[in-house]
Design a protein that fits this description.
Blueprint lengths: L8 H6 L16 E5 L2 E4 H11 L1 H24 L5 H23 L5 H9 L3 H27 L3 E9 L2 H12 L4 H8 L23 H4 L11 E5 L2 E13 L6 H14 L4 H12 L14
Antiparallel strand pairs: 1-2, 3-5, 4-5
Length: about 300
């Protein structure tokens, strides 16, 4: 690489030289690219993402933190991912992905070439990354669902509306025998309306406006309308209790088969993941001051 020309003092005071585009030297983390004799490292890629898209960089940090919290809970409760289960899930995902690529490329299928163009990875590296992602998802599902099963939980449907009269009308109809899910689909302003207002089962620490009311209801009961502040201003909520589930203080091995079946029929939702992450992150000490991304 050609060394940059000397910059005069006056220009240096008013300009940024092109060296600002170059990564710092002296790092020895994994290489991700090479241009002539200049090696680009993984840390360089992160710094570039941090400059170009801080939100994306923060998302990556959040995923790392989530992995660490999940790993600590897995160690605490003796949760392990069986190799046979991991291979089964990864092989099924790979088969599905290959079929999608074949449908897209048809007779011109060059799977290795496709992986290189899209992901910049050789096939063996892609397969290894797929298994790591599968293990991450499986550990998250095991830990989050297992910890939830140890706590008293409630399964509810809910409805949100800006008009108190509509909320009150829903309560009257449900108490007269109407189906809450149908009314939520028709009237609710929350995206959960598409599934009849159903939320994943949650514990008492769930950070949601319906949580307190939910634990005051018996199975099959509906709450009176109550107001709560949302991003769109004050809204009226109604909660219907689908089920109450007492916590079970059992080893993971006794619940694993049940959790596996549940993850197949109802995969882990982003709402469950967010609730878990926010709850346990609150218990972490604040990060030390640094030049990295901090919340």
């Amino acid at each position: 690489m050609v060394a940059p020309a000397a910059t005069n003092t006056a220009a240096a005071a008013t300009e940024f030289g092109p060296e600002i585009l170059l990564p710092p030297t002296g790092t020895d983390d994994p290489e991700v690219a090479r241009i002539g004799d200049l090696v680009l490292r993984a840390s360089d890629a992160y710094r570039r993402i941090l400059t170009a898209n801080p939100k994306l960089a923060l998302s990556a940090v959040d995923l790392l933190v989530l992995d660490v919290i999940v790993a600590r809970h897995a160690e605490q409760f003796g949760i392990r991912v069986a190799k046979a289960r991991l291979e089964e899930l990864a092989a099924a995902e790979e088969k599905q992905f290959r079929a999608q690529v074949k449908q897209e490329l048809g007779a011109s299928l060059d799977f290795q070439g496709y992986l290189w163009r899209v992901f910049g990875m050789h096939e063996a590296d892609w397969q290894q990354a797929l298994r790591v992602r599968t293990a991450q998802r499986l550990y998250q599902g095991y830990v989050i669902r297992y910890l939830a099963a140890r706590e008293d939980r409630v399964l509810v449907r809910f409805l949100v509306h800006k008009d108190e009269a509509i909320a009150a009308e829903v309560v009257t109809k449900v108490r007269a025998g109407a189906d809450f899910a149908t009314l939520a689909l028709r009237h609710s302003e929350d995206p959960a309306r598409s599934d009849g207002g159903l939320l994943p089962a949650f514990g008492r620490d769930f950070d949601h406006p319906v949580a307190k009311a939910a634990f005051e209801l018996e199975k099959g009961a509906v709450s009176a309308p109550f107001a709560s502040r949302t991003a769109n201003g004050e809204r009226w909520f109604v909660v219907f209790c689908v089920d109450r589930m007492p916590g079970r203080d059992l080893p993971f091995a006794e619940l694993q088969a049940e959790i596996d079946r549940g993850l197949v029929t109802q995969p882990l939702t982003s709402l469950e993941q967010t609730a878990y992450n926010e709850r346990w992150r609150r218990q972490l000490p604040p990060p030390a001051a640094s030049n990295s991304v901090n919340r």
